[in-house]
Amino acid sequence: MTNTDYIIQRSGAACIKAAYLLFINNIKKIFLATWKPALILSVVAGLGTLILPPFFATSMAAPPQSETEAVANYASTVFLPVVYLFVCAGFFLWMLSNVQTQLTGGSFKRNIRHAWAFYGVAVLFYGGVYVLLNVLAYLAGMSLVRGGMPVAQFMRWFFTGFGIFFLVFFLHLPALCHAVVLGLWHTERQPWRLLGSGLATGLRHWGFLFKIFFLTGIIALLICCVAWLPTGVVFLAVNADAYGQIAMGDPSGLPSSFPALNCISTAVTTFFLGYMGVWLYLNYFYAACSIEAKKAAKKAAKEEEKAMEAKADAETAVSK
Prior knowledge:
Elements: H1 12-25, H2 27-59, H3 67-104, H4 108-146, H5 151-171, H6 173-185, H7 191-204, H8 206-227, H9 229-248, H10 258-319
């Protein structure tokens, strides 16, 4: 996989086709290089299901009696699941780093250290945005309680702000995927520079990247609907049982082994979907290669144009 020339201009459909062929033809190499981080990712994702449900249950059992209790409840219901997702994303990035090493070579240890450094920068950036949004939401909530803002007006502002944020976040995902590829690929550059330049380049080529994002997203959604179905059934059963205990005061109707079943189901599903994520990453790797080829072609065209202008100027000077 490492001696192939990937820097070729391709259309979005050609990138998807090339990624599929690369994944299928090298599935054994990919599995041997990634099974350890994939296994750790699946174990972490499974064990997380044993930790999160008790926090949901205890935090929603009764309304908060103070601001401190409200913040604590929020931390257990929203903040901890976000941390859980960040941790899982870190192990998934380890998996992708091994794939990138197979693609472009280099030292496994160096590439993994660089991948985690890039991930740390991304966590600081997006974690900062997340904290800022929560501070704004907290201040808005306090204005509702202390300032006498009507509930209807508050809800309009809340849903409008949430809708705008969700739209911006969704639209920037293709650029983020491009930044991740650059962050794992160019180990000679600083991680924080790669995040900034990757997002900027991704936004400039947003249409091309969104085409790949949209097409592969449809395929991935169909795969997830099938692969995640057993885990989804278990997840809905656990949450329906928790809701019955919290809202209705009903006793739990699930067997004591159900949390273990939820853990195992999540772990197996995560292991499988991790390799679907590898295929998605290969699509964006080919897209990044295509963008690099376009840049190189544009640079070569400019240099050729300058050379022709210099030659014309020299010929004009000689004729005079």
